[in-house]
Amino acid sequence: MKYIKNIGFGLMILAGVSVTTTSCKDFLDEELTTSLSTDYFDTEQGLIDLTESLYGNIRWHFGYEWAYAITLYGTDEFTNGNDLTSEPWNTYDNRFGPIACTPATGAANNNCPAPQALWDEMYYGIASCNTIIAKAENVIQDVAVRNRCLAHAYFLRGYNYYRLAAQYGGVVLQTEPVEGVVRNFTRSTEEQCWEQVVSDLRNAYDLFEGEVYTYGKGITWTKATAAHFLAKALLFRCSERCQKQFANDGTSRTDADIQADLTEAIEACTYAINARGPLTSDYSDLYANWTGVDCENEQLDEILMAAGHNADDATKGRYGNRTYNYFTPQFSNFAGGWVKRGVWIGGMDFQRCRPTEYTYAVFDHVNDARMWKTFKTVYGINTIADAEVSAEHNVQLGDPGIVMILNKQDDHTYDGYTFGAYSQNPTWTDDEGRLPEWREGQRQTTTTGELTSTPGQWAPNSLVLYQGGQYVAPEFKSQPICNFFAGINKTDDGSRTAEKGDAHRDVTMARLAETYLVRAECYVRQGNYSAAMNDINVVRARAQWKDGENRSFYTDGSQAFENNALNTGSAADNYVNSNLNMNTYYLSNPDIEVTTEASNLQLTSFPSNLPEEDEAILAQIGASSDFDRAINFILNERTRELLGEWSRWEDLSRTETLITRAKAFNPEAAPGITANKHELRPIPQSFIDGLLNDDGSNLSDEQKAAWQNPGY
Fold first, then answer.
1. Cα–Cα distance between 483 and 477 in angstroms, integer?
2. If 132 and its partner were Cys, which of 153, 363, 468, 692 is the partner (CB 3.0–4.6 Å)?
3. What is the SS3 assignment for 91?
4. SS3 for 230?
């Protein structure tokens, strides 16, 4: 992202007002400033600089372990791998509560995200927004500039309160600047919080100048960005969790109120869709075809909001983009030495987010291109780990070294074969010692539909999802938890200049495909299933294989290494040998002949007669009414389209499906997750302990308990 550099700063509610900020004249020519007093924000340029700095606040979300812990863990999509850094967020055990989990209290290490992390950072951004909103009318003379600053401030304040209310329920609503240290607050109800979120996002929507890319196309917040989140906020307010909580607070909303929200949300979605559509034609362009810092794929019209990053070490701030660490299996560990890690592979093997059985099973493995454009199933051999074994099996650098077969439960092709890791013997032998045919024996290209065959090709490490109708993938592991799985590629970054250095690609936070699914859910809640199906089919049409596509071709952000200064010598060889541009589509679908024909994912009825993968999931969770089937189908479609895109916990919480789906599909979460407790996060104890009464006295134990969410 060439336009926004790190300009993070804020005025925390419980802190003083001394500020050091990185400001800029514009987003194309950043200038590092020295410490500034808040008097600077009584000037027009000061408020403009403060407005530009708001973009820095959203980078925090992707700077560390909390990126996945608070958004993806403990859901149906992901569970933890063998690394247990954020395990309590996934297991909901007794370590997960208002007090930060440390090694002294059972955390695996010091990096376990604290419950106050999101709370603190959102209020930093809110404080900056409050300053702009309070001062802009009197300080900025140019009406267009003033409105632009106000639009940004209302948007970020609304977005930050959205995140707070989605996670914690009712929070502190502070909408005016605070001077000095304040330690006495009132907790607002959840309904009051959502009213504030909706109000702020409405103001932003009204003030933004259409699709004017003020600070750089593809990254600037616009009217469509505000419309998208306004629709999400209105939908959240209409969803099950809020309706239950509002009723508990004695402030139930009428059917007319709900219908008005849904109508407004549909109108907001329609604006964004009309202003920024159509969808990007190839799903790979959203993530897999990322070629380097500031590439054209970061400027796609479908992207409504992103956290901007670049390769300038001087301005990356404390938190760079760390998300490339979290979705990749521990390939260097289970590869038996044949695949070593490095900057030439776009993901670090930190094995934080392991897909559940549901996450593989929810896809149509034959017809849905998103699956094969997202999951990385083949790693190439970049090191000859054993010369004797290499000679015996004629192993060459660049041969498949790690192979993951993502078959379906009813596939019995591999029932008699032996799979496993750490093996220096053929791993795909059946009871008679025969090897299956490896149909992708060389590097693939985007233009060929012909796949070479190398029958009996040896690979040192392999796995399969199902044997004998049983889900066996977790058995290929290092104890105690599986570290061998097919990771997703949405954050892979081959532009890194150090193996553990920060990544430089933007992180997409909202895009138009989700807008379609939000509108579809609004239609479902209005009982208009036909309109909902039409929107769903727009998303699924993009997901279909197009005529002429090579279904065995794969790529990811590792390809950015081609433009990396480190791409020389042995590193260049490792890049070529590691990234084979192939997947296991045909091994995973052994009954499919090689084809380049288009596929079809279009629904012809809704919510009855759904695809078989959806019917199986709905049966498992007991969704039988038309409404429940429709809502859960949309949740399934969100997985297929938005897997790993930082909103799953909130979506399941708001629809009151978190408990059911986590118990059904996440074996690590199932024992600990509890209804009427874990739909909300604990209010940070560090915040509660800092509160005082009006007279300056400490809160009593009863008063502190009243601040806390149920069950904690």
1. 5
2. 153
3. helix
4. helix
Q: What is the mean pLDDT of residues 190-197?
A: 97
Question: CA of 60: how far to CAs of 63, 80, 267, 580, in Å?
Answer: 5, 22, 31, 33
Amino acid at 436: P
- Indicate the SS3 state at residue 292: coil
Q: How many CB atoms lie within 10 A of CB 646?
A: 21
Tokens of 422: 């750490």
Q: Is 690 exposed, middle or buried (0-12, 13-18, 19+ CB in 10 A)?
A: middle
pLDDT digits (tens, 9 = 90+) for 87-105: 999 999 999 999 999 999 9
| C-alpha–C-alpha distance, residues 245 and 168, integer Å | 12
DSSP assignment of 102-160 = -GGGT-SSTTSPPTHHHHHHHHHHHHHHHHHHHHHHHH---HHHHHHHHHHHHHHHHHH
Q: What is the pLDDT of residues 558-612, one digit of tens each?
A: 999 999 999 999 999 999 999 999 898 988 998 888 889 999 999 999 999 999 9
Supply the pLDDT for residue 320: 85
How far, in Å, are 96, 98, 270 from residue 689 at the CA level?
18, 11, 45
For residue range 447-472, what is the model confidence (pLDDT) as tens digits?
543 333 455 667 888 899 999 999 99
In degrees and rounded to multiples of 5, residue 324 shows phi and psi of -65, -15
Is the separation of the CB atoms in 525 and 589 below 8 Å? no
Contacts of 467-476 with C-beta under 8 Å, sequence gap 24+, read: 467/414, 467/415, 467/417, 467/419, 468/412, 468/415, 469/409, 469/410, 469/412, 471/357, 471/409, 472/419, 473/357, 473/360, 476/334, 476/419, 476/420, 476/421
Per-residue model confidence (pLDDT) at position 317: 67
Integer CA distances (angstroms), 348 to 325, 480, 482, 491, in order: 5, 21, 17, 10
Q: Taking a C-beta distance cutoff of 8 angstroms, is the pair 422, 334 a contact?
A: yes
Stronger pLDDT, 410 or 336, i.e. the higher one: 410
DSSP state, residue 412:
-
Contact in structure between 227 and 171 (CB atoms under 8 Å):
no
Q: Please determine, for residue 20, whether its predicted confidence score (pLDDT) is greater than 50.
A: no
Give the pLDDT of residue 293. 94
Q: Where are the alpha helices (DSSP H) in 310-375?
A: 331-334, 357-361, 369-372
| 3-state class (DSSP) for residue 198 | helix
Percent of the chain with pLDDT over 70: 89
Q: How far apart are the first and last CA of the chain?
A: 41
Alpha helices in 560-696, H assignment, sequence order: 569-578, 585-588, 612-621, 626-642, 648-654, 658-665, 685-689
User: Which position has the higher pLDDT, 584 or 237?
Assistant: 237
Distance of alpha carbon 16 from alpha carbon 543, whole angstroms: 50
Cβ atoms within 10 Å, residue 702: 7
pLDDT higher than threshold 80 for residue 4: no
Residue 489: closest CA among 336, 628, 372: 372
Number of residues written out for the chain: 712
Q: What is the C-alpha to C-alpha distance for residues 640 and 369, in angstroms, rounded to an integer?
A: 10
The H-or-E segment that residue 467 falls in is strand 466-467
Rounded Cα distance, 47 and 44, in Å: 5
pLDDT digits (tens, 9 = 90+) for 618-648: 999 999 999 999 999 999 999 999 999 999 9
Q: Cα(707)–Cα(684) distance, rounded to whole angstroms?
A: 10
Tokens 């569970």 found at: 79
661 by DSSP, 3-state: which?
A: helix
* 192: three-class secondary structure by DSSP: helix
| Tokens representing residue 396 in the block | 């060459």
- E strand or H helix that includes residue 470: strand 470-471
Where do the H-state alpha helices sit in 169-254? Answer: 190-207, 223-238, 240-248
Here the tokens at position 360 are 């593989």
